[in-house]
Amino acid sequence: MSKVLITGANGFIGANIVRAALEKKYQVKAFVRKTSDLQSLKGLSIDFAYGDLRDTESVRKAMADCDYIIHAGAIYLFLPMWFWADPNKIKAMYEVNVWATDRILKVAKEQGIKKVVFTSSESAIGMPKNGSIGDEKLFPTKEEMPGHYKRSKYLGELIALKWDKKGLPTCTILPTTPVGPYDIKPTPTGRIIMDFMNGKMPGFVDSHMNIVSVKDVAMAHVLAIENGKRGERYIAGNKNLAFRDVLRLIADVAGKKTPSFSFPIILAKAFAFFDEFISCKIKHTDPKTPIESVAAAKYRVFDSTKAWKELKMPKTNVRIAIREQIDWFYENGYTKSK
Question: Is residue 231 within 8 Å of 165, Cβ to Cβ?
């Protein structure tokens, strides 16, 4: 039985990748920090390796008896504006998402790992200037990547593709906006659903996005071990929707009223600026609505045909994924109703 090392195994996508790998009969070794919250992996028949992605030797030791690596570990965080962002957090993001990836894949090649599947992001996809749907062919311009998270994921994917050219079989999965269970933090997307269910979303900024079941994203990673072609990129997405329609869908699934007020983008940015100022300069906490997250609210729609055809990625109805996330939040105390 082949063994796969999964970095970021306790994260939202990672915890679902672990389950998908077990479903496909792989032995799983989860690479996590000793201080990590392992609630999302409780009760699973897996091995653990402890360390930090920035500690190359701990990763080398973890991959010693593994055949494959799914590198899903990353810092996923929208940071405040540069003039009051914590420089240590910025530094850590690039160290983990970019430079640690370079060192890990170097060691993977030295260790004879058969294949690496790298978790990228839809942030690493460029949008056609004619307003059509994005696909794997385009890489983004700097203007399309507001903030350090998006830039770090883009640079991380370029490194993964570089190592494929150097002889380490590698392909990349680019998730769009995943929804579903085991969103412990929760992620920015999960927070939308959580806030909606808790009645804390009076309105919205109109934008467009692609949403997908996190279970499908996870299975795409596992299927890429066998079906993914070297050096190729695969958008793991499903349904393109306006944000107002995403909220209508959540409301319909939950049996609640849909917010009807659409904030102009300038008003949303002003609110985010005020939130950042109060949080960072007065409360010394992270803002709930960083300007970076508002700036990301754009026309981001994608074609996932390549992943469906080549990887055989599932295509679960997004209503099911939304229901699963709502139920998981309720069962784990994040919301008061479902």
Answer: yes
Answer yes or no: is 118 within a domain. Answer: yes
User: Residue 162 is part of a domain; what is its CATH number?
Assistant: 3.40.50.720
CB of 22 closer than 8 Å to CB of 3: no
**Residue 204, domain extent:** 3-331
Tally of domains within the chain:
1
- Residue 338 within any structural domain of the chain: no
Q: Determine phi and psi for 165, rounding to 5 degrees.
A: -65, -25
Could you tell me the CA-to-CA distances from 303 to 66, 124, 152, 236 in Å, in that order?
A: 33, 14, 23, 9
If you write DSSP's letter for every residue of 284-310 in order, what string do you get?
-S--SS-HHHHHT-SB--B--HHIIII
Residues 6+ apart with CB under 8 A from 123: 140, 145, 149, 150, 153, 154, 296
Sign of CA dihedral 140, 146, 149, 151: positive
Kindly state whether residue 70 falls inside one of the protein's structural domains: yes
Classify strands 68-71 and 239-242 as parallel, antiparallel or unpaired: unpaired
Cβ atoms of 40 and 10 within 8 Å: the answer is yes
* pLDDT string in tens for the chain (338-residue length): 899 999 999 999 999 999 999 999 999 999 999 999 999 999 999 999 999 999 999 999 999 999 999 999 998 876 666 566 678 888 999 999 999 999 999 999 999 999 999 999 999 999 898 878 999 999 998 888 878 888 999 999 999 999 999 999 999 999 999 999 999 989 878 888 998 899 887 655 677 899 999 999 999 999 999 999 999 999 999 999 988 899 899 999 999 887 765 555 544 555 455 555 566 566 666 656 655 555 555 678 999 999 999 999 999 999 999 999 999 999 999 998 87
116: tokens are 């690496």
Among the listed residues 292, 261, 289, 255, the one whose alpha carbon sits nearest the alpha carbon of residue 83? 292
The answer to whether 140 touches 154, Cβ cutoff 8 Å, is: yes
Query: Is the residue at 336 inside a domain?
Result: no
- Contact partners, residue 279, CB within 8 Å, separation at least 6: 80, 285, 286, 287, 288
